[in-house]
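Project outcomes to date are best conveyed with an example. Our students and postdoctoral researchers have been running inverse folding experiments weekly, and each run begins with a structure described purely in tokens. The record below, which covers 304 residues, was selected by the lab manager from last quarter's runs and is presented without edits.
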């Protein structure tokens, strides 16, 4: 049931106890980090609430009235309980801030998270971080199930039950081995790409979902036709280098291979393969503690 409006707030009761303990309103005000006029105002408001004087002001200081002594006795139990509550909350916050469980899609986990982690170590060195990597669908389940406080996905939108915010930009690119006929092409029309079986990630992968939605938007009636499904980006890159066939992967994931000449990336025409990588958390909540700091780091990197 709601408290009576006659019940003073904890700060006023705590101040009253300090005045009685220290014998002076001025010393109590100093101990609480407030001015003496502010302390006087709080005591007057307390007296107005309870309807009786609680202090007697003298030239030697302040002392409790009979009613003030009685109220102070009752207040001490309440204030002590409040200090215990504060200590308990502090312990919960320390435990929260000492560990962070993150779920991230493979692209984020391999190519973005290490940079974020370095920054997190600087700002929150005491946090122990555990990373669970999987496809975007698996990341969403980890956050919804409570195994991770925050997740990072590659899917175009957040699954039901999750809120999201952009943390990075990326682009999907076609990659082939240098000996592949497409390696010498100046452009691959999206219709030709749609008609070509590809080496792909498994269903549930954010990369695959983004690619399929982009192609379906440009080629009506198109149905995916995978040449080979693999569950890791590294395995796909190895298959493409080995000449198995083309693949569509994140530009972040193939930057090193393209720079080294192990893979070639002919441009795709007629489709927008850009995408947004997102942080996700349960709907109605906001990241707190180290999760909030990690999210802020990712957002700062996006803005820069």
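After processing, the design step wrote out the following sequence:
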């Amino acid at each position: 049931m709601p408290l009576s409006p006659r019940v003073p707030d904890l700060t006023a009761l705590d101040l009253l106890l300090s005045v009685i303990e220290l014998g002076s309103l001025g010393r109590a005000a100093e101990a609480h980090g407030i001015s003496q006029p502010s302390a006087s105002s709080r005591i007057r408001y307390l007296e107005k609430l309870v309807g009786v004087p609680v202090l007697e002001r003298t030239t030697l200081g302040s002392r409790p009235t009979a009613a003030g002594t009685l109220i102070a006795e009752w207040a001490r139990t309440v204030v002590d309980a409040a200090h215990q509550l504060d200590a308990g909350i502090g312990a919960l916050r320390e435990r929260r801030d000492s560990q962070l469980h993150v779920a991230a899609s493979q692209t984020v986990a391999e190519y973005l998270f290490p940079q974020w982690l370095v920054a997190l170590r600087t700002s929150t060195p005491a946090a122990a971080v555990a990373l669970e990597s999987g496809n975007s669908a698996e990341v969403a389940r980890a956050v919804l199930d409570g195994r991770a406080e925050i997740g990072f996905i590659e899917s175009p939108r957040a699954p039901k039950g999750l809120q999201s915010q952009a943390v990075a930009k990326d682009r999907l690119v076609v990659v082939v081995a240098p000996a592949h006929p497409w390696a010498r092409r100046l452009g691959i029309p999206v219709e030709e790409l749609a008609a070509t079986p590809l080496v792909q990630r498994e269903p549930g992968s954010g990369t695959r979902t983004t690619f399929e939605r982009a192609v379906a938007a440009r080629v009506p009636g198109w149905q995916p036709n995978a040449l080979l499904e693999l569950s890791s980006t590294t395995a796909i890159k190895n298959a493409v280098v080995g000449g198995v066939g083309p693949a569509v992967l994140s530009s972040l994931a193939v930057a090193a291979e393209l720079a080294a000449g192990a893979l070639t990336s002919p441009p795709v025409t007629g489709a927008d393969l850009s995408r947004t990588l997102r942080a996700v958390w349960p709907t109605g909540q906001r990241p707190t503690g180290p999760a909030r700091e990690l999210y802020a780091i990712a957002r700062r990197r996006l803005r820069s």
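The mean pLDDT is 90. The longest strand covers residues 162-175. The training component of this project remains on track.
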